[in-house]
Amino acid sequence: MLKTRERQKGKNQYQKLGEKGEFLEVTEYNAHLWVNLTDYLDTGLFLDHRIARRMLGQMSKGKDFLNLFSYTGSATVHAGLGGARSTTPWICRVLIWSGQNATCV
C-alpha cells in the first residue's frame, strides 16, 4: 500500500477519510495489534513510540493502568500483557478498538 500524506491544518488532519474498515494485524514484541490503513490519515501506531509501549509493559506488573492518551489502545494492550492488574483506555471509540486488539492477544 502506498499512501501520500499532504500537509493539513487544524481539525482537517483528524477527519476520517473513509469507511472501508480494512484492518491489518501487526506484531509488536509480544502484542498483536490491528491497524487501519485506509480510513484515517495515519494508522495510530507510531513506530517511534514502540520502545515506550514496551517499557509500559515491563513496568505495569501488578499496577492499575489508565491510558489517557489512547488512540488505538496499543499501550493498554502492552500494559495488560505486562501483567497490569487492570487497564482502561478512556475514550469510547478506543474501547472498541482496544477490545479488537485485546482479541489478538
From TrEMBL:
Entry-linked SUPFAM superfamilies: S-adenosyl-L-methionine-dependent methyltransferases
Keyword rRNA processing (UniProt): yes
EC number(s) given by UniProt: 2.1.1.173
Keywords per UniProt: Methyltransferase, RNA-binding, rRNA processing, S-adenosyl-L-methionine, Transferase
Top EC class, one word: transferase
Presence of keyword Nucleotide-binding: no
Domain S-adenosylmethionine-dependent methyltransferase: 17-85
MF annotations from Gene Ontology: 23S rRNA (guanine(2445)-N(2))-methyltransferase activity; RNA binding
Highest taxon above the source species: Bacteria
PANTHER family cross-referenced by the UniProt entry: RIBOSOMAL RNA LARGE SUBUNIT METHYLTRANSFERASE YWBD-RELATED, SAM-DEPENDENT METHYLTRANSFERASE
Name this polypeptide is given: Putative RNA methylase
The organism of origin for this protein: Escherichia coli
Lineage per the UniProt record: Bacteria, Pseudomonadati, Pseudomonadota, Gammaproteobacteria, Enterobacterales
